[in-house]
Amino acid sequence: MEGYARMAEHPSPQTAPPFQDVFTNYYAQVVRQITRITRDQATAEDLAQDVFLKLYDQDLREIENLGGWLTQAGIYAAYNHLRSERRRASRDGQQELPGGTLEPSTEERWLKQEEIEAVREALTALGERDRVLLLMKYSGYNYQELAQATSIDSGSVGTLLARARRKFRDLYQRKREGDR
User: What does the entry give for GO biological process (predicted)?
Assistant: First the structure.
């Protein structure tokens, strides 16, 4: 709340209009992306507000790829929220997670963690543009939004996305085969 008060009381003439434009242009996309991860609209809206408060504290001129920054910040916020919910549930001794699902076994958690690590390593091995394209596409962004966020021609998005998928698949398969 303190960030909102600061924005209202002391808008900087250099950052207030661009920030308002950024908020107007990206808020719905960030909420949609977080909702896909958390499966809860109200939580997604709260987390999106946190993301934009963090953005407000940044110098917008220092962020090269604003769409990519917001995408990563939204993803991190959503996963951090889910992690804290799981910790809270285990600390409270609950057997069920929010949503009524049973907590997975140790083996299932280990296998899932191994899978997540393989995906994370494959994504990390990709170039920045390919990684941003894939993360944004699977977060629900359309081709026009991808083109705008990555500063590439909208006609090239499909081709670059297909190449990024192929690179990811190859890296992922190599990682999975190396684990066996």
Answer: DNA-templated transcription initiation
Q: Which of 45, 55, 51, 71 is nearest to 19 (CA)?
A: 55
Alpha carbons 3 and 132: distance in angstroms, whole number: 28
Question: Per-residue pLDDT tens for 113-123?
Answer: 888 888 888 88
Amino acid at position 158, single letter: G
CA distances from 124 to 116, 131, 159 (A): 12, 8, 21
76 vs 92: CA distance, rounded Å: 24
Q: How many domains does the chain have?
A: 2
Q: What is the pTM of this model?
A: 0.47
Q: Are residues 65 and 132 in the same domain?
A: no
DSSP conformation class of 57: T
Q: Specify whether 58 is located in the same domain as 112.
A: no
